[in-house]
Amino acid sequence: KAGVTQTPRYLIKTRGQQVTLSCSPISGHRSVSWYQQTPGQGLQFLFEYFSETQRNKGNFPGRFSGRQFSNSRSEMNVSTLELGDSALYLCASRTGTSEQETQYFGPGTRLLVL
Amino acid sequence: SQKIEQNSEALNIQEGKTATLTCNYTNYSPAYLQWYRQDPGRGPVFLLLIRENEKEKRKERLKVTFDTTLKQSLFHITASQPADSATYLCALYRGDDKIIFGKGTRLHILP
User: Fold this and answer.
1) Residues of A with CB below 8 A from B91's CB?
2) Got the DSSP string for A58-78?
3) A55 and B CB contact within 8 Å
4) pLDDT tens per residue, range A18-69
5) A29: exposed, middle or buried (C-beta count within 10 Å: 0-12, 13-18, 19+)?
6) Helix or strand or coil: residue B54?
């Protein structure tokens, strides 16, 4: 089975721009979660999508949004980029049917905001 | 609010020794704790899950303990090898369907 894939792997943007990141989960997984990882804050939960609906949300401003398509692929959008948005953005997938199941992470998209 | 802390930012251990990493949490005991390994430039990889009613879990050279009295989980790697060098993250299920992660401990196994 193919693992979780994320595109693009690297991205450079300037302040004020917007960006869209993509995540393809493992086949059969209906839950996709997004995380932001920075050296200072560690891994922080952004949101989770399950069957095209946002099921959970972390404490991030409304500039961070996401969506999920019928094939479970998910996109994350950040509008009006700020320097502090520079981070590794990770998505993780699971079947979504049990709260104790393992999450499988993708390799991440490294975003640099200049 | 529930917080999770991994005591050491970095840990140097001699090859062949046991590496012990600590994860402490505040407030209520989570239903379970997870440990992940993360290599540079890669996403975290799941290693072990331990439930609140389990004291200890093992997988090959890895062992995790869960002490709800101390509000602490310990992660041990026995007979450590340079290939074990990585960042190790603990994560707990917060109870409102969210998982929170510690900031990780960078483990260096010295040959």
Assistant:
1) 43
2) -S--TTEEEEE-TTS-EEEEE
3) yes
4) 999 999 999 999 999 999 999 888 899 999 999 999 998 999 999 999 999 9
5) buried
6) coil
